[in-house]
Design a protein that fits this description.
The chain is α/β, with parallel strands linked by helices. It has 4 helices and 4 strands. A 4-stranded parallel β-sheet has the order 2-1-3-4, sandwiched between helices. It starts with a strand and ends in a 12-residue tail after the last helix. The model has no long low-confidence stretch (mean pLDDT 88).
Amino acid sequence: MRILVVCGAGASSTFVAQRINGAARAQGLAWLAVATNEVSLADEIASSDLVLLGPHLAPHLDRITELAAPHGVGVVLMDADAFADVDGTRMLARIGTAVQDGTARHDPGEPH
């Protein structure tokens, strides 16, 4: 599963993506989190399964959800303390919830 982590400029999302990737590897999940910024989102969304949107982008949630919908990609707004998740496990759990509730596109043969 490919997860886009989106923030305004792409800097803070890089840290979140790295932490998610480490937590996923530790749990044996073949999930890849990739950092991007709001400007590049339109170019990357079709090849993704889930968008994690930085909490500071909450005012743009509806527009980004509409952008993702035609591609069958779900959007999850990160919690306000997402950047404090130093080992990525809380964000990984949130992604797991998105898989279970159908927000994220997911291959049923892939573990979650």
